[in-house]
Amino acid sequence: MYKQVMLLGLLLEQPMYGQQIREVIENHHTVFADFIKKPTIYYQLERLAHDGYLEVRRETVEAPGTGSAHDELALRERDVYYITEKGRTYFYKLLREALGTHAPQLSDMDACLFFLDHLQPGESITLLNERYALVARERTRVVQQMQDLAVQDDAHKLVNDHKLTLLDAELNWLARTIMHLQTRPAAAQPRTPAHSYVRHIPNDHT
User: Fold this and answer.
1) Is the alpha carbon torsion for 38, 15, 47, 32 positive or negative?
2) Across 151-172, average pLDDT
3) How far apart are CA 163 and CA 44, in angstroms?
4) I want to staple 48 with a disulfide (CB 3.0 to 4.6 A). Which of 40, 53, 114, 128 is the partner?
5) What pTM was computed for the model?
6) What average pLDDT does the chain have?
């Protein structure tokens, strides 16, 4: 949903063509730059236009060329995207839902924890330590990104603070889980398989 919110929100500010949207995201919304690349942008724009949230107009605009001509501004034909009234209504619906609701979700990790005993304790700890290192590296990257930005508006501060809060929570949980696995008794009983609770009744063929 965040991809549609970002695209509709940008087009709510002004009509743009695809490459222009990409450059705005790269230059002003760097948090999303790795997640909303050009193919994704055009795919989402086509979906939004198909559903009536955007209107596409072929216009002559001042735009850079492609490839080696990227730095050469000239009048070129581009598909310019305009948000429709239906699109405005949809944008505000998505915005209010995201801000005012919470949908509990389970992750891949939650499912895997049920089967942790299928691995040797040492391997489980090694894998969780690897995950810890990856999360810590991402946290360092976010902090560095915040420091590299000379000026941060309030929106960027809120987004990065939210990301750091979630990363810190994950790091704290991983640290506790690794400590638990390292200190639990070696003879701890494994989890009872779920299928053991199922009572099998033989079919009566008589």
Assistant:
1) positive
2) 89
3) 24
4) 53
5) 0.73
6) 86
β-bridge mates for residue 81, sequence order: 16, 56
Is the CB of residue 139 less than 8 Å from the CB of residue 164?
yes
Mean pLDDT of 77-86: 95
What sign has the CA pseudo-torsion 108, 113, 117, 123? positive
Q: What is the pLDDT of residue 65?
A: 66
The answer to whether 163 and 144 have CB atoms below 8 angstroms apart is no
Among 191, 186, 178, 169, smallest CA distance to 116 is for 191
How many Å separate Cα 175 from the centre of its chain? Answer: 24
Indicate whether 155 pLDDT > 90: no
Predicted local distance difference test score (pLDDT) of residue 149: 72
Distance CA 38, CA 152 (A): 25
Which residues, 6 or more positions from 168, have their beta carbon under 8 angstroms from its beta carbon? 139
